[in-house]
Amino acid sequence: MCILLYIDPGTGSMLFTIFIGIVTSMLFLWKKVVLKLKFFLHGGRAEVSAERYPYVIFSDSKRYWNVFRPICDQFEKRGISLEYLTASPDDPALAENYEHVHCRFIGENNKAYAKLNLLEAGVLLSTTPGLDVYQWKRSKNVGWYVHTFHAVDEGTGYRMFGMDYYDAVLLTGAFQERYIRKLEELRGLPQKELVVAGSTYMDALKEKLEKKQREEETQGMEVSGKTGEKTILLAPSWGESGILSKYGAKILRALIATGYRIIVRPHPQSLISEKAVLEPLWKEFPDSDNLKWNYDNDNFEVLRKADVMITDFSGIIFDYALVFGKPIIYADTSFDSAPYDAAWIDEPLWRFEVLKELGAPLKEEDFPEMKKLIDTLLQGGQGDAAREKVRNEAWQCIGESANKTVDYMIRKYQELTSERV
Question: Is the pTM for the entire model greater than 0.90?
Answer without folding.
Answer: no
